[in-house]
Amino acid sequence: MAPHIFQNNLLKGFENQRDLNVKVIHVPPIGSYPIHYKRAMMHTDKWKAGYQQIGYINLPVLKHTIQEQRIKKLIEKELNENKEQYLLIYSMYPPFVKAAASLKRKHPGLKVCLLQTDPILGKDGIYTKNTSRNIRKGQKLISLMKSFDSFVVLTKYLAEAMEIGDKPYTIVDCIIDSMADKDGSSEERSGAGNRFLYTGSTRSTNGIITLVDAFDYLPEAELWICGDGDSDDYIQEKEKTNSNIRFFGSIDHSKIAGVQAQCDFMINPRTPSGGFTKYSFPSKTAEYMMTGKPTVMYRLEGLTEDYDDLLNYIYSEDPKLLAEELRALIQSDREQLMIKAARAKEYVLKQKSPEAQVDRIIAMWDRTK
Questions:
Q1: Residue 183: what pLDDT?
Q2: What is the pTM of this model?
Q3: Architecture in CATH for domain 2-175+353-366
Q4: How far apart are CA 27 and CA 95, in angstroms?
């Protein structure tokens, strides 16, 4: 869901630029037939003027070769040496990177920009085991990217991992559409003011076990959880013995705002442990800030300093000590918490909108002329 929302908001930002003619070439993010996907043939599809999904044979190795060829062919049709044109690639997908590098060699005047939202193939943080094969693939892609003109990344550490040197880059950690506020989830609820909400994956690596255990020591507060993952059984067992825990499981994204409106704090238990958090930005951070409720989370390495005065940081990874931190937060000045939350929401609306983020990308492009 997070990449889908990010991409749609990115396109919305570009479409709202008056002087841009936007066209999209799409490859569905699916595995190869027959093990990872049930279809061997992927057909061309057009869902909007200038927007199309390419067709290809969905077999290992062959799929990438066909995708690269068709991507190059489609872009070649659009190139005009007398016009200023930019090619924006979403992610280091090999067919995209190889096609763009080839086109750049043939058409030096074409400005190529890569937008990367994930850790780099073969480097720390993306796979449990970085095989020699993945390392070689990552090195090859980085080598091809040396000819690109600019980059868009989620964090500064991602830019370093991509080895872009002194090439222009800008950080776009999230894109939040103001329409996400249409349900009015920032309205104050009546109650004790001590209900925490977590929405997202319940994988143990996200810190959910520690968070659930902390509420054994925090009977005066409630924890609501929406999501699914490998910790579901554990959470359900806790729910049976701990009346202040409520587990909803996975619910439709359209219903999240309604649940948020019934809670007082938005909490993300992901800790900065491990290298992955240097290269990522949890999309729920901005979504939480949009609620106008206090957002509680650890100080992850991928966050810029802009967030330090807008979020409420927790530090302990011990359940009992974490409970003490949350208790202190509950007992703190509610009015001040809400003032900070209101500033956080205003920041997201102004600085993380589709228009603001695309303006930031275009301003960077202007520096490459």
A1: 47
A2: 0.89
A3: 3-Layer(aba) Sandwich (3.40)
A4: 10
